Amino acid sequence: MTNFSALTVAEAEQKLADVDIDASGSVITSAMAAGSLIKHGERVFVCAGPGVVEAVEVAGGVCVDGDDEIDVVVVGFHTTFDFAEMAAAAHALHNGARLIATNTDPTYPTPDRLLPGNGALVAGIATAGKVQPIVAGKPHEPVAALIHHRLGTTAGDAQNFARHVMVGDLPATDGALARLLGFEFAFVESGVTTVEQAMSGDPKPDCVSPDLATLVAQRLR
Questions:
Q1: H, E, C per residue of the chain
Q2: What is the pLDDT of residues 199-216, one digit of tens each?
Q3: In the CATH hierarchy, which fold is given to the domain comprising 154-219?
Q4: Which CATH fold would you assign to the domain 9-135?
């Protein structure tokens, strides 16, 4: 499960296939979570990448330009964001459109530096539109519902913790989603958070591992 919404499902699967992980039919993105909130036939202004366009169309929504009558504005990470797009989105919100955010992650990590994340884009549009967004991705209920549906699990089942593990590097998103799902939270050190930061965060990890490969090897012993 990824909060990165710009990729289509096929692109996300290919990214994993490039590192020898077969995730065909197993990927869930925050774009898909946002799409689950779209009603068939709704007119949607997409301020996001191809992954959100795909998810909206799969849900039966109609992607329209900012000058059209709009039912929903969906904001996802993209690097072409500009003032004209913010103005069009805000105008739609002033006229009663709903605001859906794929996620509100404040930053986006790259090998060189942290870039502004989708949370920064959403904050601008929400402020201009004078509304609060419905957040679809980690650690919120829409994506939790998709995960439960995909795995066949049930919210509140006491067996979830013993049978399922949420692996991630951010307590505020991965850890919080683990708690919402009732799953174990396994923290990996290969991301943007140190062990010290994770152990002082909320929620604290249930286990710590250097990376995903080591975690899997430990669990298969």
A1: CECCCCCCHHHHHHHHHCCCCCCCCCCCEHHHHHHCCCCCCCEEEEECCHHHHHHHHHCCCEECCCCCCCCEEEECCCCCCCHHHHHHHHHHHHCCCEEEECCCCCEEECCCCEEECHHHHHHHHHHHHCCCCEECCCCCHHHHHHHHHHHCCCCCCCCHHHHCEEEECCHHHHHHHHHHHCCEEEEECCCCCCHHHHHCCCCCCCEEECCHHHHHHHHCC
A2: 998 999 999 999 999 999
A3: Rossmann fold (3.40.50)
A4: Rossmann fold (3.40.50)
